[in-house]
Amino acid sequence: MNISTRPDFHPALLGCLKGYSLSRFKSDLIAGIVVGIVALPLAIAFAIASGVTPTVGLITAVIGGFLVSALGGNSVQIGGPTGAFIVIVYNIIQLYGLQGLAIATFLAGCILVLMGLFRLGTVIKFIPYPIVVGFTAGIALTIFSTQMPDFFGLTIDEAVPADFISKWGVYFRHFGSIDIPTTLVGLGSLLIIIFTPKISAKLPGALTAIILVSAIVWILKEFCGVEGITTIGDRFGALDSALPHAEGIGISIETINVLLPSAFTIAMLGAIESLLSATVADGVTGGRTNNNTELIGQGVANIVVPFFGGIPVTGAIARTMTNISNGGRTPLAGIIHSVVLLLIFLFAMPLINLVPMACLGAVLIMVSYNMSGWRVIRGMLSNPRGDVSVLIVTFLLTVIFDLTIAIEIGMLLAIVLFLKRVTENTTVRVYGEQLDAADGTDLTTHEVLDLAPGVSVYEIDGPFFFGAATKFDEVVRHSLREKPLVRIIRMRKVPFIDSTGIHNLEILIQASHAEGIHIVLSGVNPHVEEALKHAHIDRLMHGDHICSHISEAVVVANRIARSHQ
Hints:
With 565 residues, this protein is α/β, with parallel strands linked by helices.
């Protein structure tokens, strides 16, 4: 896979502008306004859960959302901060601070752009589904666990550990400090979020809860003397509505070396989530995402937002589906959603100070529930044990350790299981006296070939790579007690051969020749034959010992066997 002289960069916005009409603009305008309103509480909640201020979340949604829509390869994708990044962002801030997060996000953007330029947009989709389900469920549980202090109003007089088990230990020790009014606010918010869509599917539950509960809490504080319910203003002070200026991020070789693993995790997670969101959107709209352009657009967004203090950006499935369901069909809807958030940022920040932290905790608890995919997990438990193992291991590693380790170990385990399955599916059959040339095909005409005494046929069915090569060696060593005169290796069903297969074949040929046994290859496809010639395997054999068909190979082998009798 090499980089093209002409990058595969064709933003969906350019194609959608051709033949654009007023009626289409009206639909995009309505969808953009609705999505902007829906995105507001999520941007604030994700920012706070990630360890940054609500202002950072809004700036990320404004700039990142605009760039994803303007430069991405999907017509309806909505970009912004998402719940999937909460864990990794929070951990990076704890270890390296906001400066480290800015560098990691910038590097992740560069990686995403390179992935798009190298046309890796389709390759990323081959990440096994159990891994995606496992780390998504793990992230969901981690997000849920981080909301306990705000939801229940716990008073914790010690630093809350980052790891899952120790964190819950602290929660249980301080659960006696639960604040009843705060808990009631959290529970009320959660009920509003759950039941609002049942009243009207067009009402966003999270925003409805924030508006109603914030108003009630303000009334209780101002007129009823209720104290102890913490709001955003109490936690972060008065939020500034001034637009941020671009600042440097102080990148260096030393910081790159330290933060590259975290940047790679952000890039992989962003690529997976954005392309998954695009795939879901294509299934609904009938569109077709340019995956490479989408990666480049996501990469540019993540390169730009750190200079304005933003956090990682990716495609958001919930907001994208909201866009579609409200009539959005072009990237202009996503751009309008960014404009709506910008107007809210400029003119409504004082109102955001009134939002209770318990209400945002309820929003994130609902997000974690929707992310958990427990119905999918329940259905996957009946899948092969290998897939279930990958899912469980990825889930546990995400929860107990971190996302980077979970993806690395999960991918390694999935690869090992895949190779095991391929090896198990590669079979070796041995024939000693007769051979049906049509065996294993759809042909109805059978051609039975008689094998001369001393001729054995070994048919390999499947890829001849390192695992299968070892299996073939064992079959050759244990198949026949008497030493044959000729070994025919039938390779009509070998789609490819790797270096280990070539090496084992070379050793077999040399060892057979040393014992006076001839080797004949049959049915070698052009790709495998080219690999064998490149490794000079053909030089170890007579010119007529590499045959195109089994009938020809049997004639050659029988002639050799009879000449030695």
